[in-house]
Structure formats: structure tokens, C-alpha cells
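Data deposition worksheet. Section B asks for the primary sequence of the deposited chain exactly as it was used as input, without tags or linkers unless they were present during the calculation. Section C holds the resulting structure in C-alpha cell form. Section D is free text for depositor observations; keep each observation to a single sentence. Incomplete worksheets are returned to the depositor.
Section A, Depositor: J.P.
Section B:
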Amino acid sequence: MKVRHRVASVLVALVVVGGAPVGSASATPLPRLVPEPVSVQVKSGGYTLSASTKIHTSPGARGVGEYLAGILRPSTGYRLPVTSAPHGGISLVLGGVPKAVGDQGYQLTVTRSGVTVRAASTTGLFSGVQTLRQLLPPAVEKRDRQHVRWTVPGVTITDHPRFAHRGAMLDVARHFHPVAAVKRYVDQLALYKINYLHLHLTDDQGWRFQVDSWPRLTTHGGSTQVGGGPGGYYTKAQYREIVAYAAARKITVIPEVDLPGHTNAALSSYAELNCDGVAPPLRTDIEVGYSSLCVSKDVTYRFVEDVIRELAASTPGEYLHIGGDEAQATTDEDYQTFMSKVLPLVGKYGKKVLGWHEFVKTTTDTSAVPQYWGRSTSNAVVQDAAARGHRVLMSPANKTYLDMKYDPTTPIGLKWAGYIEVKDAYEWNPGAHLTGVPESSVLGVEAPLWTETIETSAHIDYMAFPRLAAIAELAWSPWSTHDWEGFRTRLAAQGERWTALGIDFYRSPQIAWPTK
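Section C:
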């Protein structure tokens, strides 16, 4: 039987230490937090921001302080100077936390005299800042001055993630999403402590990353998208801009070049990549499984190495995703041959291999990470990989795919993996989902958003929220806190915050959203 501890709600505040709740009737009720923290002690009193509040940062933490000030200044109207000299107010401090907090966790303490966030790293401080945002009224997210009493309730929170890898994927190949749209999504991911953004940069319908040595990949291959729109691509400068923007929010970008299938945009751009030497026309439909690079040609591997070299040079993160899924147009023998030549190229340029789970049958290198996207709870290829020592990234399509419709009335999205309502996205255990893959073999969780029907940021909002918050909690919070009824109550409180942020979310009938 799971031991559950709940964060304080409207009527009764709770003190939570190691999962044991103790009543505290005099304490200020705590806002409902997502993801739920590991340990919460609710106390009486609290700290109210004022025009004299300053943000004090330890050496090395100024960037997090400036980020926090950027969130708070527009809505409060306060100057909130960031200083290295302690002045009370809000303090962001490196060091002084228990070892159990780790590199990504934090402690947050609120008293009448101020707010202190402590962590072993700036990544942990940044996570603590996201919790602090949720402790303030939702109006703090607005971009103009609000006349609100900015009180943070008295509390001590000790928190750290269940999984080190908490990701979201955005497909920019099927429909191109410009830099501003990607940055907007990055900001949304940061709020829920997601720390990896997987960009699906290439597919049959479009090539979105500039490769200097193969310029037609973007000028031709990037010139369209699903439905025949104008498409687009990121210059290297724009891609690096996205990477830097994400890094400032403690999010690492994982780029994907899908190989050897899902390559029609490349095949159309360069005839020599085809076995018959004939370039096919660009495709704007959503069919899969028909394309393949020519495995027997030397030029194929010169092409792949050039792409990997240039993409790796622009990507400071440790992973490069090589796709590998739905390669029906490639024979099993050719698939093995292709991967045996391509996977070492990723390591040659200083990256670790991540790919859709099919590829892992071709390698014994346990640093390679299979991303499980199947719909069943048993997969022999992934089970064997886990037994060899591979870590698995969990993205079961019928639980985590944010492009699946909520129900038959959803106006956009697909349904091949099934309808996914909020409860479906929440009610599964990443650490026990796959037979033979124990939690110790799970690297983390990722929520992919494919964009066959997703054309705008408004579409992203509608399909990602509220399900993204459910996946984020599964990835961050201890399994002992998992409880649908408690989660749906806490999730309802996020609605007002999303409205303040301009997120046009799906108002699931499973959630009792506030009516005001």
C-alpha cells in the first residue's frame, strides 16, 4: 500500500515530514503545487513582497536571480534589484542543503522576514524559483502591473526529482514552428521543472536545420510542410539562439535527425542519396514508412557524418537523437548495416546516442538510450536492452503523446494511439510500466508533441495543457504521492495561472476548474 502525503489545501494546512502529516490549524493555507514536492512543512505567517524587496544571490547564481526578477517585476511593479549583498527579502543561496537533495533539488523556506531558496546548484535554485512562482497569486504571471497583495505563505519545502531526465518533444518538421513559438514553449516547460527539450528537426515533410555542406536540405527540403504551407528552417544562429534560451532556463536541447527512414525531405533535396539516383517529389501528406536513405552507397555515410558533425557542433548537450523508427522501407539487414556505421559517428563527435526504441537492437553500447514509444506494457527489444544495462526513456504513445485527441470531439490531433484524457496521462507508473524494465533502468519520461495537425502556438497550448503538467508530475514527484483525486484538485488551481500566462488550455471535464 502506498503511503501518501498531501500538500495543504483550502481548509486544513498540513505539516508534512517524511510522508507523515500533522495538523497546523493556525498556518496559512498553501497554494496547490504541481509537481507535488517531496516534503512540505506549512507554518504560520508568511512574507509579503514590497517596493523595498531585494533579491540576494550567491556568487554564480545571479542569472537565476535576474530570471526571477524578470518574472516578478511586470506584475508587482517593484524594482526588485538583484544584489550580492544580503538584505532580507528573497535570497537564492548555493550550498547548505542535505545531500539527499542532490544536484537538481532545493529547499525553500518562507518566514515573516523573507524567502530563502537553497540548492547545491543553479539548476536546483531554478527549480525552487518555479515553486516560489506557484506560491504567489496567479496574477504574478501577468505582464502588466496588478494591484494584489503579494504574500508567500509560511512554509519549508524540501524537494528533489524522481527522475533526472524530464523531457518534452516538439516536432517542428511536420509543421514548422518559428523561434518565438519554440521559446514560448520553453518557458511553459520551465514552469513544471522539465529539463530537456527534444526537437524533431527532420522528417519526410521538412528539413529544419541548416547544414552548410548540404544547403539544399533547407532551401528545398525545408520549403514546405504538411498541407503544403511555406515551411521554414532554423539558421545555425537561430538554432543556437533556441539552445541558449533553453539553457538559461536549465533546459537542455536534444536535436533529432530521423534516420534512415522519415527522410523524404533529404531524398528530394539530393538525388544521389537515392539508390536509383532519382529525387522524389516533396511530400506534404502524413504517411509514414515509405522512405529510406540508400544503405549501400558511400555518399549516404558522407552525408550522415556531415549532418551529425554540424549539428553536434551547435549542440552543447550530451545527446543526439538519431530517430530510427518506422523504417519499413529498409530491410532488417540494411537497418543493421546502417546503424552499425552511423551510431559510432555520434560518439565520434562527442555525443551519446538517443533514438526511438527500435534502434537499440543493433547495438550493445549501453550508453545508447532507447526511447520507448510503444503502446503495450511488454517489449522484448527494450527488455533485453535494460537487462544489458541500457537506461530507457519512457514515452508510451498511449500515455504521453500530447498530439492524441482527448476524446472524439477534439478538433485537432490524431487518434491512432487512442484518446488520452488527463487521467489517462496521469494514471500510469513510468517505473513499472514495462515488464522487465525496473525503475532503476528508467532514465526518465518524455512527452512528445507531434505536429501533423498542430500549426500554431494556440494549438500547442490546447494539446499540451493540462496533460503536460500530469507527465511533469510523474517525472518529478515521488510515486508515494501519486493520487488522482489529489492531483485533479491541485491541477484545477493551475487554470487561473495558465489564463494569466495566456495559455489557451483544454478545459477537461475531469477537472473542476474555477469558474471565475
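Section D:
The domain at 165-501 is CATH 3.20.20.80 (TIM Barrel).
The chain has two domains: 39-159, 165-501.
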